[in-house]
Amino acid sequence: MMLERLGHLLAQIPNSTLRLGDVGKDLPGILAGDAPVCRLAKGAIGASYGALFVEVVNRLPELLTALRNAKAEHRAKRHHEQRDQIHDAITKVLGMRPGSKGSSGIWSRLILTSIEPILEEGYVPLPSSGSSQAAAVRDAESVKKIEQAAVLEFTAFLITRSATRPIEGEDDIAVLHAEWEQARNSVGG
Asked: Which of 11, 71, 103, 155 is the most buried if burial means most Cβ atoms within 10 Å?
């Protein structure tokens, strides 16, 4: 939020390259090009504040870029960590099934691949009855809980279905995923 606000404020000014100078009749101030921006107090304190303001504003574009990049890297790292945690949870659940020794790794990857769109940023979950979709999306913890619940719900759905019919490949999981989504949409709608 702060980065967007600073970027918006920076975009509103015609010249973001500032310098110290006289704004008229030997009055110290800050200039954008040749245009006066503000006056500064005379003396060392005014010069110190002026130097600080000029340096901060002149460096702001590169600082915003660095902060945005760091935020994107953090988000990507968090996504991979979350993906690994979900994969491990699915593998553990599938490992509890009788006769699943050695096969849970491939199944957990297939399940994770089929539910990955739910984990993508920007995914808007279906609201539960009586809840506000906007409030759920705003609340990051709520979204995380919804994602985790969806993963567990889909995994349980697959385990239940695999008890009544064999799941033999990615095509079967895709069909089951479509059935699961249809069931979720009919309950949510």
From this structure: 155
Q: Percentage of the chain surpassing pLDDT 90?
A: 10
| The model's pTM | 0.42
Tell me if 46 is assigned to some domain: yes
Give the structural domain span for 54: 2-66
Cβ atoms of 95 and 104 within 8 Å: the answer is: yes
Residues 6+ apart with CB under 8 A from 87: 108, 109, 112
For residue 74, being part of any structural domain is answered with no
Tell me the pLDDT tens digit for each residue of 139-188.
666 667 777 777 778 777 777 777 777 777 777 778 888 888 888 777 65
| Torsion sign (Cα): 56, 60, 66, 67 | positive
Assigned domain for 37 exists: yes
Q: What average pLDDT does the structure give for the chain? A: 77
* Domains of the chain: total: 2
Count Cβ atoms below 10 Å from residue 35 Cβ, excluding itself.
9
Token pair, residue 166, equals 């064999």
Ramachandran angles phi, psi of 93, nearest 5°: -65, -45
Give the domain-ending residue among 17, 47, 66: 66
Question: Is the model more confident about 20 or about 129?
Answer: 20
CA dist., res. 143 & res. 85, Å (int)? 16
